[in-house]
């Protein structure tokens, strides 16, 4: 709006200056040759012509410019032409051409030839008298014969040259004149537009030249009609053009989560393996093509857990939860890699839900980018593994596993794998007390074909799993499923979140509730059994599957754990459980920014606005 205001303000100033310059030029011209039979050099705006001013476009006109006084007619309509006429009018007032009856405002130098423009607005707004052709049509002035002056005449000029008179034009409406016609001469190109009025004896036809360009050229110059518009601005990012509130949220989130990420990297440290593990852990970075703009995306830290098996043919994508990081799950990842003979890839994604592009753990654009990792032709995983030091092939079959908000993330990945046609690579989805933070989890899971198993390993309902929102989403997406998963009786939200950093382990359990050793061991048994069955559905069953409402006692090396089939009414006492009534409306907190999804058929160009998913 500010740019447009400045453009119109400048236009008003230029028009005022042009009006003053033209009036001064007209006075000089009238004084030097005011007695001419064909009207002399009288040049006024269109409103002045309506009072009876004569035109000098007759057949006896000897000016090389063709009909005189035509450019001035446009000064009140086109700001671009007005600026040009003002400058040329000042020059023309002091030349010898004034004495010969030439119009000073029509003169152009070779230097201004390239800048001569006719806008679409010029043609629409001009009300001028025309010929006996249909309204809105042009008279082809190139069909006439050359006179001795370099201009051309046509039948309209021959028929009415002797008694031209200008009366107020009678036009019912504004016509679309179409492309401007060219009046060709040795030294001039003239764009003409005419509008027809009813041909009555008292009417007068007049040919008005909208733009005249002079130049001594051996060849006929060319025109290009250009729309009058503000200068093009340099390309800007989506954030720079976003509403102020969105920009402020993005800046605040960048600062806050930047400090937080630095702190968890400082205190969390690298991934650690459990004692006696045969797994090799490597670290590198992973490219994720998140966002709509061509070339948009980011690289994130990623840990690779390679089993001792020389040629693993399975891969598990393990996604951490909100405010967590990949190394916090190093013990869990190593156990999965060793006991399922799978490569485990664990990227660390920002939890900055205030990012304008929604490229965060819970954002739909990020889920779409994660799903793109498994699309045919995407080499991001293999390039990352190679950079980490693993030169083997990346397996075709994958199990998606996500803890807490990571459960919502892998649900979104499964959904977009369906859309990008890589769903045949998906063996199954395991939710580790998965949480639907923004109300989209059920919609995402509903997109996954029913033959692909999806199981939830849950803790009792309490504040940290948003009172079982992930289980509710799974049941909504698959109301007829025979098995949804199990709840660990007396379990904690962090039973499956095992790593080697004592400080991190103690802190998370202090916040979310301490885990029972038997539940930690039971969680590992359940995860490993389900994954092996997903990769080998026709082999011997290793997982534990309960009937509806069943309770099962599982013996583990750490003691006996109790499993209860989902759904159930188990709850865990917690100090902040009184917040349950407010949890239902918390989804809006994670949808503050718009984000942008790529079109399913492309990878860069088109995009549709989106919210977190």
Provide a descriptive summary of the structure in words:
By secondary structure, the protein is α/β, with parallel strands linked by helices. The chain folds into 2 domains: 213 residues, no CATH class; 366 residues, Alpha/Beta hydrolase fold, catalytic domain (Rossmann fold, 3-Layer(aba) Sandwich). The protein contains 15 helices and 15 strands. The longest helix is centred in the first third of the chain and has 32 residues. This is Esterase/lipase. It comes from Mycolicibacterium rhodesiae (strain NBB3) (Mycobacterium rhodesiae).
CATH superfamily of the largest domain: Alpha/Beta hydrolase fold, catalytic domain
What is the correct CATH architecture of the largest domain?
Answer: 3-Layer(aba) Sandwich
Per the CATH scheme, the topology name of the largest domain is: Rossmann fold
Give a short account of the largest sheet.
Answer: 10 strands, mixed
Going across the biggest sheet, name each strand in turn: 4-5-7-6-8-9-10-11-13-12
